Amino acid sequence: MTAALEKLRKVALRLLQAVPTVFGILVVCFLLTRALPGDPAAYFAGDMADAESIEEVRRTMGLDQSLPMQFVSYLKDLAQGNLGMAISTGQPVTAELANRLPASLELTLGALVLSFLIAVPLGVLAATRPNTWIDHLCRFLVTAGVSLPTFFTGLALMYVFYYLLDWAPAPMGRLDLMFLPPEPITGFLTIDAIIAGDWEVLRAALAQLALPTITLALFTLAPIARMTRAAMLQAIASEFVRTARAAGLSGRRVLVTYAFRNALLPVVTTLGMVFSFVLGANVLVEKVFAWPGIGSFAVEALVVSDYAAVQGFVLSMALLFVALNLLIDVIYTLIDPRVGEEA
Amino acid sequence: MTSLTTTVSNTEIAPRSSLWRHLRHVVSENPVTGVAFLLFAMFVVLAVFGPYLVPFDPLQTDTGPALQSPSAAHWFGTDHLGRDVFSRVVVATRLDLLISVSAVAISFVLGSVMGCFAGYFGGWTDRITGRLVDTIMAFPLFVLAMGIVAAAGNTVENIVYATAIINLPFYARMARAEVSIRRNAGYVQAARLAGNSELRVLFGHIFPNTLPPMMVQISLNMGWAILNAAGLSFIGLGVQPPAPEWGIMVAEGANFIISGEWWLVIFPGLALMLAVFTFNLIGDGLRDLVDPQRRT
Amino acid sequence: MNRRNFLKGATSLTVGASLLPLFKSLPAAAANNETAVVVIGGTINSLDIHRSGTNRDSYQVAINCYDRLVSFGTKQMPDGSLSYDYDNVQPELAESWEISEDGTEMLFTIKEGATFWDGKPVTAHDVKWSLDRAVSLGGFPTVQMKAGRLVSPDQFQVVDDRTFRITLPFASKLALPDLATPIPIVINSEVAKAHATPDDPWATEYLHRNPAGSGAYKVARWDAGQQLVYERNDNWSGGRVPGFQRVILREVPAQSTRRALIERGSVHASVNIPNKDAKELASKPGVKVVSTPIENCIYSLCTNVDFEPFKDKRVRQAIAWAIPYQKIFEQAAYEQGIPMWGGTSTVDNIQWPQKSPYNQNIEKARALMAEAGYADGFEVPLSFNLSHADWAEPAALQIQQGLAEIGIRTTIEKIPGANWRTIALVEKKLPLHLENFGGWLNTPDYYFFWAYIKGNLFNSYNYDNPEMAKLVEDTLDMAVDHPDYAPNVTRMIELAFDEIPRIPLWQPTLNVAFNDKVEGYEYWFHRQMDIRALKPV
């Protein structure tokens, strides 16, 4: 009972700790967008606009007020869940985010899962045979993956698998024109298709996902594989594994039950960092594959100094991160019995 | 007095001869690291002497017909302005290393000072640093770099600053962790008792011991800094033309993949990959070198 | 293929999309020749061209979904492709019009049986409300209306349901063509008024998402940032029934991806492709490229006369003599377009754009520099808009090398799109920069008005010459058959070439690539895809 309460208290504390961070993010983001060069009012008034209409746009955008006033009204709107209007796409930012976040998350999570499925066995393989050619090969492969700019990998994959071989579908977003999206429940096309039982659409969505996911996964193999290898090495060298071996348990069983379970802990913590990594890389990959995610949205908005859009994007990212780190903490608590007991 | 501290810290920093032996051991056990060090040496040579070695001026247009595939005259072909790709790739080494080295140097110095203070003094220093670092970390790092460069203008200096800022948290966190576990170590207390000032204890006795793990981070970040600059170039926020830089060459060359002019992207891409690769492998190698578990 | 729950799915999925019940089966159609897929690099950010913040790519909604009173006819270009015809104004919603003797009154009769999508007849009241809206909202629509001397609601008068009168303060040759631009669209005023609020009397919020027109296509679906689906209006009275039942406009930001798509035949058309692709795709099987010179548009190098050395005409001329035009044309334009250099030394016609008398001649350039006292040259930044990098960057690099030969040392600066307008066009403080102005209304004096009059937007180089100002003022509204017209324009061109603040490089083309399943494309001055003309082969 008390242990559970203790855990709950910790979670609450973590949440509280996130508050100044979120506020810091709001401030940084607000200042950063205001520091963007150029005059968004002039830009959005259009090429032919006269001074008067530019002023008009400035007023509608609220840019005629002082910076602190703008910040206060921004916070007020925020409190009502109003993130403003993205002028570059002409939609409310909340609607844009609601529409695009699932697309980005589907891609990011897909890449993480794929990467996890490849990198963890590679890491374990390398750790069980340290300093053999297998180890070196694993290291070589994953390092090569992280050494290439993602937009380059993406274009190269597209060139080979779409342009030359025609195995992949046309890189035009999340679903081929031939199909209609399933009824959105989660916003993840794949999951929605499964819920709707529409296997054709599922296959089409997966086909569209394949190349961008592989591009991103290649990029994230290295940190996961490295961490798995290091953690496994440590676990294998540890006393409890030695004890288990000495107790006559089979090598495989020791590896899986004892070493691997313990090695997973640090791997899970790295995932947070990797996630940040992938979201950054997402921006570039989305551009290459015309993926309607928040990354491409943010780049466009940034280039035209669309304040509301950039702010909304960064805020949602930050909240996502806080949530993710919290989640990782919780998972950590779940797989590591020691965490709850420490002071 | 100093002799006392030296003997204590010997337990942390291995004597030079044994370090060297260990290095040889690591390299012999892991030939890849040896290769990485060789490659690194090559990059340094190219960065220093590159402009004197190349057959053409990297900025000169019309050294031959535009968009010519690799030939004896132009080993890596020519680009859309008839510039020699080989010369550009080689000369770019200097700018790329410059960007990554200076970015990493700035973030290393600032980050470790911040982290050292936070770890050593704790309290408010720690809390403020912690929140600052959390705030930076809460942004997807590439997006933050993008924002900074977009706001400040895309010059080489701003790319360096942006890269430095997004790398800062890694050093700050690592320095803080390394310092706080050593804060009350025996040799530190001894140094304090010997009358050294707090700052002297911190930077003279504790900080040097945090360097080995930091080295790993540095070499990994060097590669990452190059990739970061390349990504910025791809969305148009990179180095200004016509300066040769791998990232912008790959970014520009990427537009030529579909039309079949592969040499424009492959060669700078390979150079970039090789450089990042080298830094990553060195990072791995250094990790082996400083990992106490491997030293037994 | 049976896509059972399309309507259900679409309604909940599309945020901010206007959905018409007509649109039932997207998938089946994609396979046959009833549907065309068009890719663009930009994004549609509004369905209302009058709204402030509406970007260039969105203008096509005004073109395809709305009608104007008048439109332009079609002509065949020398290469066999089709273009709109500036000299041939045709009916769209108006069946006929009369212009009074003194040219200050235009009386339009609206077509019998012209209806909006909801079946309501188009009346003069709708026209009045729509034109009032265009001159009242401010911003781009108001500026464009002003070009045709349409500035106030008082000028628009409903005579009866089918008759509409426009009064001009003075006769102007620009008034009628201006009514054929995308701006003076006719909106269903009853629908719009039903959604107007005291804060928003012109229903900008509603029309932003929900077009209410009488045009050839309706918007079946708009997923902002992804796609726009047009659905044909079979009751269209504005012209020939369009060839495609449905047109899907997809936004694909990466240029390489767009090229791969058209080359692989996955899409019917790719709009505004780069010159290099235009040149290369033209020889690929299964792809057609139509490159049309953009009227009244010149890619130019501009020398800001506020910058000390450029105050001297001889320095500007020296620069014009130092540019490697041919190389720029080869490497930046990939020879798509019309050279604008190496013309005769005297102006003998009023065709515009026309070749300048300059060519690369380093000796002459050096002599002029020495004469002006700049034998050792000077340093100057050379700027261009990042969004135009595909042509501006190679051009800038060649110019850099040409100028280096006469001692002018340049550093290249790419300026992001959002800053470009402010720095280059409003503050006018870039000493040396590349510019791409083109006028919608196709007369030379209109070009000179925007680019050579002090204070006007596209005079980004602060050129100021009283003689030029007087000439433009006299000529702008003058009919082209007026006896003074040709001499005036000739003099303007002479001045522009002699004083050369804006050095012409080449006249660009608008390049559009098609697969072999579509034909009928027509070039328009607004450079947007007019999908009404497209039809399956």
Automatic annotation (TrEMBL), chain A:
Q: Which Gene Ontology MF annotations are present?
A: dipeptide transmembrane transporter activity
Q: Which CDD domains match?
A: TM_PBP2
* A Pfam family of this chain: BPD_transp_1_N
Q: Give the subcellular location.
A: Cell membrane
User: Which keywords accompany this UniProt record?
Assistant: Cell membrane, Membrane, Transmembrane, Transmembrane helix, Transport
**Could you state one GO cellular component term attached to this entry?**
plasma membrane
This protein's source sits in the domain of life called Bacteria
| Matches recorded under InterPro entries | BPD_transp_1_N, MetI-like, MetI-like_sf
Q: Where are the transmembrane segments?
A: 12-33, 107-128, 140-165, 205-225, 263-283, 317-335
Membrane protein topology class: Multi-pass membrane protein
Q: Which residues form the ABC transmembrane type-1 domain?
A: 101-332
Record family assignment? Belongs to the binding-protein-dependent transport system permease family. OppBC subfamily.
Name under which the protein is recorded:
ABC transporter permease
Q: What is the lineage of its organism?
A: Bacteria, Pseudomonadati, Pseudomonadota, Gammaproteobacteria, Pseudomonadales
Automatic annotation (TrEMBL), chain B:
Q: Which InterPro entries match?
A: BP-dependent_transpt_permease (IPR050366), MetI-like (IPR000515), MetI-like_sf (IPR035906), OppC_N (IPR025966)
| GO terms, biological process | transmembrane transport
The entry sums up its family as follows: Belongs to the binding-protein-dependent transport system permease family.
* Gene Ontology CC: one annotated term: plasma membrane
Instruction: Kindly list the residue ranges recorded as spanning the membrane.
Output: 31-54, 97-120, 132-153, 222-242, 262-282
Which organism does this record belong to?
Marinobacter salinexigens
Q: Which residues form the ABC transmembrane type-1 domain?
A: 93-283
**Where does the record place it?**
Cell membrane
Q: Which UniProt keywords apply?
A: Cell membrane, Membrane, Transmembrane, Transmembrane helix, Transport
Q: What is the name listed in the Swiss-Prot or TrEMBL entry for this protein?
A: ABC transporter permease
Membrane topology designation: Multi-pass membrane protein
> What is any Pfam family matched here?
OppC_N
UniProtKB/TrEMBL annotation, chain C:
The record's listing under Pfam families reads:
SBP_bac_5
Signal peptide, first to last residue: 1-30
Q: Where does the protein principally reside?
A: other
UniProtKB keywords: Peptide transport, Protein transport, Signal, Transport
Q: Name one GO cellular component term.
A: ATP-binding cassette (ABC) transporter complex
Q: Which residues form the Solute-binding protein family domain?
A: 88-456
One GO term under biological process is: peptide transport
Subcellular location as annotated: Cell envelope
- Cross-referenced CDD domains, in alphabetical order? PBP2_NikA_DppA_OppA_like_7 (cd08512)
Kindly list the GO molecular function terms attached to this UniProt entry: peptide transmembrane transporter activity
Annotated family: Belongs to the bacterial solute-binding protein 5 family.
Write down what this protein is called.
ABC transporter substrate-binding protein
Q: Specify the species.
A: Marinobacter salinexigens
